[in-house]
């Protein structure tokens, strides 16, 4: 679990907004903790439930947890109006909407 947390921490380095991220390794107590964070994962049995603002948004294989958490963190930062560094801007998943 520490390796997963370290990978997520490294992937979020330089993110220009404060996010509370929970990386939990227990499918029993983990969901409660992950729901309290802006972004979280409760992992076990080879998969992880991804939470954004208290809601489960998807379940992914263990091999995709880090990538998915980073993508969702970038999406949250973008939604919060953060000015993402150019190297992170291209990593934001999904359609981008600009309001004028």
UniProtKB/TrEMBL annotation:
<protein>
    <recommendedName>
        <fullName>IspG C-terminal domain-containing protein</fullName>
    </recommendedName>
</protein>
<feature type="domain" description="IspG C-terminal">
    <location>
        <begin position="3"/>
        <end position="72"/>
    </location>
</feature>
<dbReference type="GO" id="GO:0051536">
    <property type="term" value="F:iron-sulfur cluster binding"/>
</dbReference>
<dbReference type="InterPro" id="IPR004588">
    <property type="entry name" value="IspG_bac-typ"/>
</dbReference>
<dbReference type="InterPro" id="IPR058579">
    <property type="entry name" value="IspG_C"/>
</dbReference>
<keyword id="KW-0411">Iron-sulfur</keyword>
<dbReference type="GO" id="GO:0046872">
    <property type="term" value="F:metal ion binding"/>
</dbReference>
<dbReference type="GO" id="GO:0019288">
    <property type="term" value="P:isopentenyl diphosphate biosynthetic process, methylerythritol 4-phosphate pathway"/>
</dbReference>
<keyword id="KW-0479">Metal-binding</keyword>
<keyword id="KW-0408">Iron</keyword>
<dbReference type="GO" id="GO:0016114">
    <property type="term" value="P:terpenoid biosynthetic process"/>
</dbReference>
<dbReference type="InterPro" id="IPR045854">
    <property type="entry name" value="NO2/SO3_Rdtase_4Fe4S_sf"/>
</dbReference>
<dbReference type="Pfam" id="PF26540">
    <property type="entry name" value="GcpE_C"/>
</dbReference>
<dbReference type="GO" id="GO:0046429">
    <property type="term" value="F:4-hydroxy-3-methylbut-2-en-1-yl diphosphate synthase activity (ferredoxin)"/>
</dbReference>
């Amino acid at each position: 679990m520490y390796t997963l947390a370290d990978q997520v921490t490294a992937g979020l380095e330089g993110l220009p907004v404060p996010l509370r991220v929970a990386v939990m390794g227990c499918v029993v107590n983990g969901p409660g903790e992950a729901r309290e964070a802006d972004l979280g994962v409760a992992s076990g049995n080879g998969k992880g439930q991804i939470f954004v603002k208290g809601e489960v948004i998807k379940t992914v294989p263990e091999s995709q947890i880090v990538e998915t958490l980073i993508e969702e963190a970038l999406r949250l930062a973008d939604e919060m109006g953060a000015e993402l560094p150019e190297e992170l801007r291209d990593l934001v998943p999904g359609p981008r909407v600009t309001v004028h």
